[in-house]
Amino acid sequence: MDYNQIFTRIYNEIRQYSKEGKQADYIPALAKVNPDRFGICLQTAEGSIYPFMDADVTFSIQSISKVLSLAMALSIKGESMWSRVGKEPSGTAFNSIIQLELENGIPRNPFINAGAIVVADMLLGELRNPEEEYIEFIRALADDDSIDYNMEVANSEKETGFLNAAMAYLLKSYGNICNPIDDVLMFYFKMCSVQMSCRQLSKAFLPFSQHNKQFDFNGIRLTTSQIKRMNALMQTCGFYDEAGEFSYLIGLPGKSGVGGGIVAICPMRYSVAVWSPRLNPKGNSVMGMKALELLTTYTEESIF
Ligand code: DON
Known about the structure:
The chain is of the alpha+beta class. The protein is built from twelve helices and nine strands. The longest helix is centred in the middle third of the chain and has 14 residues, at about 115-125. The chain is globular, with a radius of gyration of 18 Å. 6-diazenyl-5-OXO-L-norleucine binds near residues 95, 157, 164, 257 and 283.
């Protein structure tokens, strides 16, 4: 399959939407990013790489990080982790606090902010050097030691992340946070701040598409069955209250971030990362969604 040619065709079709949507500015450091960037990179199971346009420009992965922290928690804690966080789609925004009280401090899934904050707390409790082990896991997945936290973004979110702080306090009141709240929030903000390019992200996510290969990166091991479950969660919860729409239009498991990145996985075939900072009202990249919709339409490759 000539993905380069497909990307050129896709870009020509979607460039008409290049001014649609608005980049995230509730984290002030993200408002500084050039909103007109567009990159995409696909890596196949056989090892071919197809970078296109800004595929090597790094950006803040934000909620895409929640897949990586979940992978660590699932590897370390196994099924016991599900006593503290659910695995159902929320049908609410990524930063909604409403369900948390109604459901007694157990977040619906690990990809909404409340769920990812609980996962951050789990990792703080389990790991000797959480920040180092988290970034080393990503570096091992992407085979790239240059990947790092972006402290400007993390500090910017720390100063303005009052809703996340409110959720952490509510979680704590239900006994679902064990470590000091400031430590949990800072670790969560740092995980979201990691800076990666589409090329690095597509490489890092390829192992989640390879159910036939051993998953073992920096001591984080997942069984084939756990990889299946990670994909199931991305499919059902990866796009918050737009998960149904993403399944309908694209038909692949994936995860978005408010930095404008989206990763998606075609099991046993490829992983793809796309980046365009302008977001729709649900917090997902406008151009990114359109590009992936056309990718699975033109290639006729999807899980459905
Ligand atoms: O906690 C937040 O609001 C951000 N650090 C991450 C949110 C996010 O990326 C949602 N995804 N679309």
